TrEMBL record:
<dbReference type="InterPro" id="IPR001375">
    <property type="entry name" value="Peptidase_S9_cat"/>
</dbReference>
<dbReference type="GO" id="GO:0006508">
    <property type="term" value="P:proteolysis"/>
</dbReference>
<dbReference type="InterPro" id="IPR051167">
    <property type="entry name" value="Prolyl_oligopep/macrocyclase"/>
</dbReference>
<dbReference type="InterPro" id="IPR029058">
    <property type="entry name" value="AB_hydrolase_fold"/>
</dbReference>
<dbReference type="Pfam" id="PF00326">
    <property type="entry name" value="Peptidase_S9"/>
</dbReference>
<dbReference type="GO" id="GO:0070012">
    <property type="term" value="F:oligopeptidase activity"/>
</dbReference>
<dbReference type="InterPro" id="IPR023302">
    <property type="entry name" value="Pept_S9A_N"/>
</dbReference>
<dbReference type="GO" id="GO:0005829">
    <property type="term" value="C:cytosol"/>
</dbReference>
<keyword id="KW-0645">Protease</keyword>
<keyword id="KW-0378">Hydrolase</keyword>
<dbReference type="InterPro" id="IPR002470">
    <property type="entry name" value="Peptidase_S9A"/>
</dbReference>
<keyword id="KW-0720">Serine protease</keyword>
<feature type="domain" description="Peptidase S9A N-terminal">
    <location>
        <begin position="14"/>
        <end position="411"/>
    </location>
</feature>
<dbReference type="Pfam" id="PF02897">
    <property type="entry name" value="Peptidase_S9_N"/>
</dbReference>
<feature type="domain" description="Peptidase S9 prolyl oligopeptidase catalytic">
    <location>
        <begin position="480"/>
        <end position="690"/>
    </location>
</feature>
<protein>
    <recommendedName>
        <fullName>prolyl oligopeptidase</fullName>
        <ecNumber>3.4.21.26</ecNumber>
    </recommendedName>
</protein>
<dbReference type="GO" id="GO:0004252">
    <property type="term" value="F:serine-type endopeptidase activity"/>
</dbReference>
Length: 697
């Protein structure tokens, strides 16, 4: 059933955004009315029939169940499950039982000793209106005696803060504001009697709040930062409290991280932490009561490490350089004992180095293989812990946890990798973009694949928000690889793989470069005989989903299939009325795309907005769009309006729309992840003419 048939006579409306005026026949699909939700369910049914009706779907799902990781990849999780130590306790997120992969919070007194479950999100106390809750992150007090965490209704990104006592496993009464899942980490006082956390006012201004935990601890007045003090395009705030509890740094994030303001707790006064108009990023950790050690990108686009005296932080002349800029991209720094550890990206692989407090090289931490860690990809911070632990994975190996022993410069593996893909080979390639920039990509396939002739290829890319798309475990596309396909990871401008300049070259007025880079990679794969037009599939998630929409409408000739996973597709009106996370999502949008109310920005964004660039009469490739019902960042209406307009524009390859219930921006459970990726892989394999390995037909 078409959108018009479901709605009757759909009326076109004339809409003006910024300096752009256009007609829109699908306004009704932007609202979650009963009529629209019924239409959406019809689309879900069509998608189920199309994908599950493929005769090999069951085989693909069964194969995927054997390759997909027990826990989400580091590319698919807000936080990390890596064990952490604070005080005498070790903490970690892990499955609540051997049969239930729901993440709960466990505590032990050694890294691998007996442990106790102190937070079980299945507890009805954490649910809302009978819905199931999920636990995404936690933050222990410095002495480990209590932990602040948040629970979220399954699929939601706005949750409720709680505090639990570590030894007794009992919830402590606190009154705290709702918490956004991504980016903002509370900061504890050294004695654990309270913590700072951030939210926004109804007017969208950032607000820092103190939450007392112990009885008798006095409250503090909220601090509201005006838009002049802290622009609204700043996504979230993290509180960083000094070791002596005398000062608090407000660290903005998450895609551009800046230690922007400092509070003297004795007076309650805040002041700018950095010099006026200091460009780029500045983020790090307290080294001692008087010194903040940070990665900065001003005059060093790949980053350098500096020690900043807090008393004179606004005078850059008093800063002391510890690590100069090099070919490596510095992502973050932390304290370990009296030394420092830096995380860096070198040739799109994560590395860790130990340096002294004066910047002298001390040790290169031996890595398990060339791969990735969430520390480098998106988080750009080490979890607060007195020990150095991290998660590591490769294209072939699912994530495992490691503990660094500085005394011997050794790694101890704390957990076994849950899955592996043996028999794969990894290669590299470079394409030349329209402006002459070399764009790197990885090629991953079975070692016995015949590369003398074109093969089906599955391209994944992101290219945005200062995030590095690193080598990550490919269990999610295991059946595609088993069937002889070639996986391609394209590292486009807009990401962080080569530092600040690479990021700047693919955002705002330079966003076109991201699209050119993708098409250059696709054309290079065809020219090199790796694949051919019509046998390429493109997959992108979130910002990458927007990229998938651009790929579909700009170069439909390239693709046999396109998958836009939680995409933004209407870039001029990217939020619905009443979105509870609108203040946060708008900040992220402004950071990378621009302000649609600005005349110049609106024209530039309209030029690539997928929804506004669908052309009549073109033969579009098969397209699958996936949304989460509770995704406040990339709302389902994007898929609805895009599906309706694309279907009206082309009679070939009807677009498919999947809107998942109990689902937000990412799969919340392994069962969700299995169904999610089974549909993606089956859809791609079907439209590229593939059959699963070992299939009888």
């Amino acid at each position: 059933m078409t959108a018009e048939a479901a709605h009757g006579d759909a009326e076109e409306q004339v809409v003006t955004v910024g300096s752009v005026t256009f007609t829109d026949e699908n306004r009704w699909l932007r609202e979650n009315t009963p009529e629209v939700l019924a239409w959406q369910e019809q689309e879900n049914a069509v998608t189920t029939a199309a994908i599950h009706g493929w005769k090999h779907f069951g085989e693909v799902r069964d194969q995927l169940d054997r390759t997909i990781a027990d826990q989400p990849s580091t590319a698919e999780i807000w936080g990390t499950t890596t064990p952490r130590r604070m005080g005498r306790f070790w903490f970690r997120l892990d499955a609540v039982t051997a049969d239930d992969p729901t993440l709960g919070l466990w505590v032990s007194e050694t890294a691998d000793g007996p442990r106790t479950l102190i937070v079980d999100p299945r507890d009805p106390a954490f649910g809302q209106d009978g819905t199931r809750a999920q636990l995404l992150w936690y933050e222990p007090a410095p002495d480990g005696s209590r932990v602040v965490f948040a629970t979220y209704p399954l699929g939601e990104t706005i949750g409720t803060l709680h505090v639990v006592g570590t030894e007794e496993g009992r919830l402590l009464p606190v009154t705290a504001p709702p918490h956004l899942a991504a980016g903002a980490t509370p900061g504890w006082l050294p004695d654990g009697t309270g913590f700072y956390t951030a939210d926004r006012t109804d007017a969208g201004e950032h607000r820092m709040r103190f939450v007392p935990v112990d009885p008798g601890v006095p409250g503090e007045a909220d601090t509201v930062f005006t838009h002049t003090q802290l622009p609204h395009n700043t996504f979230t705030l993290t509180a960083q409290v000094s070791p002596d509890g005398a000062h608090v740094i407000a660290l903005s994030g998450q895609h551009e991280q800046v230690a922007c303001h400092l509070m003297d707790r004795a007076t309650g006064e805040w002041r700018p932490f950095l010099p006026v108009d200091h460009p780029g990023e500045c983020h790090g950790v307290w080294y001692d009561d008087d010194t903040y050690v940070a990665v900065v990108t001003a005059k060093a686009p790949r980053g350098r490490v500096v020690a900043i005296p807090v008393a004179t932080s606004s005078d850059e002349g008093t800063w002391r350089e510890l690590v100069p800029e090099s070919e490596a991209v510095l992502r973050c720094v932390r304290k370990l004992g009296n030394d420092l550890v830096v995380c860096e990206i070198r040739d799109i692989a994560v590395e860790f180095r130990v340096i002294t407090a004066t910047g002298q090289a001390k040790a290169s931490i031996p890595m398990p293989a060339s791969g990735s860690s969430p520390t480098a990809m998106a988080a750009r911070r080490f979890e607060r812990s007195t020990e150095l632990t991290f998660t590591h994975e490769t294209f072939q190996q699912a994530s495992a946890d490691y503990h660094y022993l500085p005394g011997t410069n050794e790694l101890v593996q704390l957990s076994e990798s849950s899955r592996a893909l043996p028999g794969l080979t990894v290669g590299r390639g470079f394409a030349t973009s329209r402006d002459g920039t070399r764009i790197p990509y990885f090629l991953v396939h079975r070692a016995d694949v015949d590369r003398t002739r074109p093969q089906p290829a599955f391209i994944e890319a992101y290219g945005g928000f200062n995030m590095a798309l690193m080598p990550h475990y490919l269990g999610n596309v295991g059946p595609f690889l088993d069937a002889g396909g070639v996986y391609v990871q394209a590292n486009l401008r807009g990401g962080a793989e080569y530092g600040r300049e690479w990021y700047e070259a693919g955002r705002l007025t330079n966003k076109q470069n991201t699209f050119d880079d993708l098409f250059a990679v696709a054309d290079d794969l065809i020219a090199a005989g790796v694949s051919e037009a019509g046998r390429l599939a493109f997959y992108g998630k979130s910002n990458g989903g927007m990229l998938a929409g651009v790929a579909l409408v700009r170069r439909p000739d390239l693709w046999g299939a396109v998958v836009a996973d939680v995409p933004l597709l209407d870039m001029l009106e990217f939020q619905s009325q009443g979105n509870p996370a609108a203040r946060f999502a708008r900040g992220a949008f402004l950071e990378d795309y621009g302000d649609v109310t600005d005349p110049d920005d609106s024209r530039r964004i309209a030029a690539y907005s997928p929804y506004h660039n669908i052309r009549l009469g073109l033969r579009h490739p098969a397209v699958l769009q996936i949304h989460g019902e509770h995704d406040h960042g990339c709302e389902p209406f994007h898929g609805r309006v895009f599906t309706a307009r694309l279907r009206a524009a082309s009679s070939a390859n009807k677009p498919l729309l999947r809107v998942r219930k109990d689902y937000g921006h990412l799969p919340a459970t392994r069962a969700q992840a299995l169904e999610h990726h089974a549909e993606i892989v089956a859809f791609v394999m079907d439209h590229l003419g593939m059959t699963p390995a070992g299939s009888g037909s």
